[in-house]
Amino acid sequence: MYIPVMLETKKLRITLFGGGSVALRKLRALEGAHVTVVSQKINDEIRRYAKEVIIKKVEDEDEIKEYIKGSNFIIIATDDKIINTRIKNVCENMGKIYNIVDDRESVAIFPSYIRENDIIISFSTSGRSPALAKFLKELTENFMHSLDVIERIRENIEHDEKKRSKFFSELFRDCNFWIYMEKGDKEKAFSYAMEKWVNDYDNN
Questions:
Q1: Alpha-carbon distance 95 to 137, whole Å?
Q2: What is the domain range of residue 186?
Q3: Are residues 162 and 97 in the same domain?
Q4: What is the DSSP string of 87-148?
Q5: Average pLDDT estimate for 140-153
C-alpha cells in the first residue's frame, strides 16, 4: 500500500542510475535536488540538470554501494532489467528508499501531479492505470486555475466563517461558475459568484 508524501527537493541527495529519456524526465521533476547520475551513456541534456555525472556501466555490487551510500533516495532507470534488479537488491539491503521506473514493487513512485500557487495535488493508481491518473489530472486542472478568483471572492464577502463555508460549498457545486472558469473568463466567474452572494447570503 502506498501513502502520499511530500518531499523538499532541496534537502534530497539522489543517485540516479540511467542516462536516457526516462532518466531525464525524472531528473527534470527533481529540480533543486542534488542528483548524481551514473550511466554508461548520458543524454546530453542530463548534464544541464545533474549536479554530478559519472560515466560508468554499473555491474559490481560494491560499486553500487559506494554510489548510493551518501544518498537518501535512489532512482533506477537503466534499460537493463538485470542491473536494475541488482541495484534494487543493494538498496533494500542498505535500507534505501528507491524507485524503479515502471515497477509496481518500488518503495516510492512518482505520481502525476499539478502545482498551482500553493496547491499541490497528486494522482496515482499505484501503478495499475497511469492513463486513468493522467485523465484525473487533466480533469482537475480547470479547478486549480480558480484559486486566485476564489481568494478574491473571499476578500469581498462578509467575514462570517459559517456563512462563507456554506456559500463556497454551494458555489463549488454550481456548474455555471465552473463553466466561466473553464472558458477562462475569471471576471464573469467572479461577478457571478458575487451576485450569488448578494442574492442568497448578503441579507441572511
A1: 32
A2: 145-200
A3: no
A4: HHHHHHHHT--EEETT-TT-SS---EEEEETTEEEEE--TTS-HHHHHHHHHHHHHHHTTHH
A5: 84
For 21-70, the pLDDT digits (tens) are 999 999 998 989 999 999 999 888 898 889 999 999 888 999 999 999 99
Residues 6+ positions from 145 with CB-CB distance below 8 Å: 116, 181, 184
* pTM: predicted TM-score of the whole model, two decimal places: 0.71
| In a domain? residue 61 | yes
Residue 70: how many CB atoms within 10 A of its CB?
10
- Domain count within the chain: 2
Number of H helices, E strands in the chain: 9, 7
Q: What angle do the packed helices 175-182 and 130-144 form, to 10 degrees?
A: 100
Q: How many residues does the chain have?
A: 204
**Residues paired with 195 in a beta bridge:** none
